[in-house]
Amino acid sequence: MGQYKTKLGLVGAGTIGKRHLQAISEVSEAEVVAIVDTDPLAESIAIERNVGFFASVGQMLKDKQPEGVIVCTATEDHLQPVLSSLEANAHVLVEKPITPSIEEAQQIIESSMRFNREVLVGHHRRYSEEIQQTKRVIKNGVLGELVGITGIWAVRKADSYFEPEWRKQWTSGPVLINLIHEIDTLRYLCGEIVSLSAKVSKRIRAHPKEESTALLFEFQSGALGTFLLSDVTPSPWTWEQATGENPNFPRTSQNVYRFIGSKASLDFPNLVLWRHTGGDPDWLHEISPEVLDGKTGDAYAEQIRHFCAVIKGKEQPRIRAMDGTKTLKATLAVFEASENGTEIQL
Ligand SMILES: NC(=O)c1ccc[n+]([C@@H]2O[C@H](COP(=O)([O-])OP(=O)(O)OC[C@H]3O[C@@H](n4cnc5c(N)ncnc54)[C@H](O)[C@@H]3O)[C@@H](O)[C@H]2O)c1
Known about the structure:
binds nicotinamide-adenine-dinucleotide; 6-stranded parallel β-sheet; alpha/beta; globular
């Protein structure tokens, strides 16, 4: 008898939808049983995989009854497919941001509880080996007391990226599309962000959305953080280029975060630990780098494996709708802080 496979439906076979299809093909306990897309051209993707193709989520849920649904439509179109899937008793993995607004996210949280189905949010970095190792380094006190973190995400997005009109809107600007990953990663590694100030700017492209932001924040532990982000600046410093997680973005292997603690510091994601190994631990003495042994893996495939395990009741969700909503709230606070020129308490 063959291995039991968890039946998954995919809604939205665009950029990230295709990445999920690739990840599903790498996970032996998962299979895609249907693809939904309003664009008829996407039918070829379903034909290639010999799975059902639907133009409507409702019809797919009725005909295929998937155990899990992965929602990869544009952010402003997350809500309805998520609610319909929960109502049809499917668990959901919804791409990030969970929704564009806290009100919609709240509807998802309530529906998840009402139908007793899990909603995971696609903050896939939580499944990266480098993140897992960094979490252990911080938790085990290797850095001593965490004092701060500084990070950068700076890149020039291709002009073709902005061809769909929705990508020029604020719901697809780099704060909600990219910074939200950084904020989720930092919350996951360092704990809750309790306050945040920010400046947001747009000067280079004539789009309604923002282009750049600079942040100052504080974690519950008292650790401080700063972050600089822009999507109009050619640079080798982004998570994607650093890790090579997506072959579309050529790898640079540059570090993009620095964690500083009372005993040591860590360059990330190359996992270079800097500490004094002889004499007093101060700047009068030599400080040496040590590259920590790290595994690498496909975070998207690990996310699918985890989603199947959650559906089967074997694992607790690593990120539920409520947690994804906290990440959204901290991310939206960037706009509020910039507009009002104030520090936001979260
Ligand atoms: N986790 C990540 O790293 C990551 C990366 C990229 C995008 N995303 C997120 O994924 C989402 C989609 O982004 P994208 O870049 O893949 O967009 P995209 O435009 O490339 O793909 C969206 C797809 O959804 C289809 N679609 C639109 N309305 C639909 C509907 N009502 N029902 C079914 N299909 C519908 C479109 O035809 C298209 O194929 C966004 O929320 C984005 O923030 C996450």
